[in-house]
## 1
Amino acid sequence: MPLLPGASGARPGDGAALPVRKRGAVSTAAARGPAPAVTEPPGVSGPGARAATAPVTGATTAHAPATPAPLAPRARLWPALGAVYRAQLSRARVARIPLLFVATFQSLGIMVLMRGVVDGGAEARAVVAGSSVLVVAFVALNLLAQYFGQLRASGGLDHYATLPVPAAAVVLGAAGAYASFTVPGVVITAVAGSVLFSLPMGGLWVLVAVIPLAGAALAGLGAALGLLAPRAELATLCGQLGMSAALLLGVLPGGRLPEPVQWVRDLLPSTYGVEALARTFEHSPDWGHVLFDLGVCAAVGVVSLAAATWAYRRAAVR
Amino acid sequence: MDRPTGAVVRTSDLVKTYPAGRTRRGTPGTPPVRASDGVSVTVHRGEIFGLLGPNGAGKSTLVRQLTGLLRPDSGSVHVLGHDLVRHPDRAARLLAYLGQESSALDELTVSLAVETTARLRGLELREARRERDTVIEELELGEIAGRPLKKLSGGQRRLACVATALVGERPLLVLDEPTTGMDPVARRAVWAAVDRRRAERGASVVLVTHNVIEAETVLDRVAVMDRGRVIACDTPGGLKALVGDDVRLDLVWRERAPLEVAEVAALAADAAMSGRRWTLRLTPQAARDAVTAVTGGPAFAALDDFTLATPSLEDVYLALGGRTEGLVKA
């Protein structure tokens, strides 16, 4: 530090008192070789030189400009949503194992286990549909709740909060990406389940609607839980509980459950995704009911994503 | 150095108290912390303004209030003429902020992190990609542009985060310890890039640091903070003038101080001792005499190293009554 031009420049009369060398090292800064040159950026003169001309005190004498400076434009919703979605999708390359495979293995395992117990009919349809939607619950509800919970706890939300991006773009972009992560797992599970339980595959095209709608409902719920939970561990816990509920209440056929549990089942948004998919395994599906179930998913999706957007705004400014 | 006047940032009497921690069974709760205690600072246009102080001094709390992330309990924050207490959402359209956390970007590649941030700062795709390429070249990130942030070393990751803060033009940059963990080459690239924005576009910079060397070399003015208060605010030179003409003499002995030498024994009375290291604050004449004494005769044989230096910001900080444990001198 004594070698810096600023330090000497500030004290012109003290030449004799300035650094004296012994064994080549004058100060810790000098001992590190290139450091003094580096800490002096090009174009920035030493502080001592500046002292003569810059204001001497930090008193608030200067006033803010009379006219406020123009604001930079906001990021528009759709381009920003696209950018968040793309960035989130790319995370799958880094975290691909939990995102894409764990959920699928879990569902395949459940179906293999249930194969020994269930022998076709309504139960088989419920098992396959429940296991398929479980992939959505695992990724969109559980992992997204964890993601937002950790982001909030670590202060990572500050990054988005200090960019002029609509809250909905961040929430929808992340929710959309997590719903997209479920696509391969849901398809693999549904096809494998149909083969395992000898179910017709003609109605599987309905997954085109089930995945985004159940995905929206569960991802919205997951995002809201993650953003509202006061601690990251609680967000993780809520996500796990939600997924466990989707597992137990989705895979087991509704008719067999006690009445209070059936009410809980009716409250869970994943149930409607399960029912819609289960109906399409029937030989002549009741498309009116399928449409109703998907409508419930869509409505819950709208509400939960709106709640998640609200929760994001609340979490972003503390 | 002549530059247009006008306040870019003006805070007055900012107060922010973090509530007391809740008590759990067996452990006492933490008391409330007044992280900003009547902070008034003004940053002028084109200025690199520093906040210096150890951890917990209230620097980050202050910048979080400047960036609309934290609402003060009382007081005002004006940035470029906008009232950010009333309109915290405007901060994102006036300034770029580099926080201490990178968890939002950790799993993205450097290139995508910069591009996405540019897009979210409102740039069109083509423009965002052009700025991304420019900043990556400017900070010499080309070789690691395709790697995810979390696979990088701490300094490289920090540099990538700086790139996200620099992309997309803003008249004010708020940087919270931007060079933490960086090697000298990266630091130089950062300061060159920051200075370019100031010289070419008139950008102003608010910089949080606890590195006194950095503070002395890059800052136009420094607010020294301690326990939520600004205890001094001036140019580094002006601050150093506060501690007068005294110079600092550091002596490091090989094994132990040769107290049998009369001159050394006399110095011992005024020295702050830390193991083999003595620190003395002396007038220039007394320092010259002391150097003469310890560099000759038997004292020299016992001496391992010594440094004679004009006052640093650390001395200022100490003289103003601050705690120095948290300050970095490298």
## 2
Amino acid sequence: MKRINILDSTLRDGSHAMSHKYTTEQMAMLAEQIDSTGVDFIEFGHGNGVGGSSIQYGFGAATDEEYMKAVRPKVKNAKLAIITLPGIGTRYDLKMAKENGITVARFATQMSECDIARQHIGMAKEMGLIPWAVLPLAKFLSVEETLRYAQISEKFGAEVIYLLDGGGSALPEEVYERIFTLQKHIDVPLGFHAHNNMQLAVANTLAAIDAGATYVDTCIKGFGAGAGNCPVEPLLLALDRKGYRTNVDMYKAMDVGDEYLKPLMPRPMELTSDQIMLGYGVYSSFILFARRAAAKFGVDTRDIIKEIGLRGCTEGQEQICIQVAYELAQKKKAAQNP
Amino acid sequence: MEKKIPVAIIGPGNIGLDLMYKILKRSKYMELKLMVGNDTSKHLPVAAAAGVPTTDRGIEGLLEHDDIKIVFDATLASAHMVHAPLLKAAGKIAVDLTPAAIGPYVCPPVNLEGYKNEPNLNLITCGGQATIPIVYALSEVTKVNYAEIVACIARDSAGPGTRDSIDEFTITTARALRVVGRAEKSKAIILLNPSKPPIMMSNTIYCLVEDPDPVKINDAVNRMVERVRQYVPGYSLKLPPTIDGNQVTTMVEIEGAGDYLPKYSGNLDIETSAALAVGEGIAEHLLKQGGNH
């Protein structure tokens, strides 16, 4: 029976859904509860990762270091993980993570720009952190190109390589063929991170596992950016039926969700119309920014998201929401006053 | 013909060659006497073909030229660390386009005036050159408690130098926003954009300020944009200063001059344009000094 490693990201991707306003107390309390479910890794902190607290992405309710100091003493079994983007998080952030008991440092780049992680992967290794590479799927990159970029990440020293469907726009067969090709040529373990904007997070995660992924990201109740991530509870049920093994207790995960997470959720992980639009290939974390920009400039959130998808913008470019909203508003004005 | 100051460029890469064409086409006070490469410089013949004398013997080949007064270093930070003391000892002024930052950070419309007698001047980063003028302009009319910039660069115009030292970009830009831009606190973010066709370099500048006055802010920013356009003609406001509470958001875009690099490489253009402006400023200063003696 194949053993699947579970990384819980309720406290990191879920931070997007909280507009990065988890208090340190909430994060510490949930970390302790999530640890009790038996997950292998707990990723936590600002939704955009370490260094993400900013105007661009939203300020966190606490600093990275405050979150680390709050979470570390509560977690006894799982290994702690952080994520960051080269170009946002710096060597000082990595050093702080190491000093605060973090084991795994995940580096996300745009897939085609994965070589900008070389410096950070090297620095992390030198500091004694375990570096993983996280490569967002891009709909315009073929299976062969995906493999080529994964091989670059492997060469730099990434110890696990993830594909990430940040927009929840991948279809199960697209996930399957990419992971299947990667596992034939890549020696390090492969992982998958799903989003649920088209309600395919569980299906895509299962497809990744069937194709050879042994690491997957989940959240309690799917609590994450956009329409959320892969919810751990139905995934565990499906894995049990399919005969895969994990270290996570399904009942405990359900109970932690109902008793501890649900009361803190600002809204359930529902399927809103503008979130579905993320299926055009837009990063899930854009949704709240697009809504704010739409309100400020008097345009439709769906138009903003669709336009961003057409422009092929990917991770980290939340400022584009303001720019597109402004341009749509100008266009609207011009149409009204010819 | 008016007298010109002899100058040299080290590093015939993308940046060095773009700067070469800028000096050849536009310089009033500088004469490009030498392009310095080494035995691995593939593109040194491009300089020779443009009629510029070349050497492939690196810094040693350069130091044989006593007449050269200003040296632009477009190599790597590690190389500039070696070059800087040698240039200083030889009495040559170094304009450093690497992240080595041995000398003070210079952004032409902000602080060049004060640094014309320095032996070594550093050009920060492209993101710094693009955004610091705006932050500084705001600081003239209000207190900037926090400046955060997001530099978006087309993937094709981020070469191996940027990619292998992305952390220096983030750290140096953030520091220069405080030191040169006069922001109290700062943060810098760099994003590479793989869109096709390539996007122009676009920069978002978020500032948290005290009691923003829309009229004063608009005036200050517009005046500064005009000053930058004098040496970077493709510099333009994409989003005029937009005030939301105490937050001011401004976006600027840079279309390169297309001297050697494609037009979308505004990030490289603003760096070489700043180098040209700094070189011109110093050369003019040297000529005036010479006239007084």
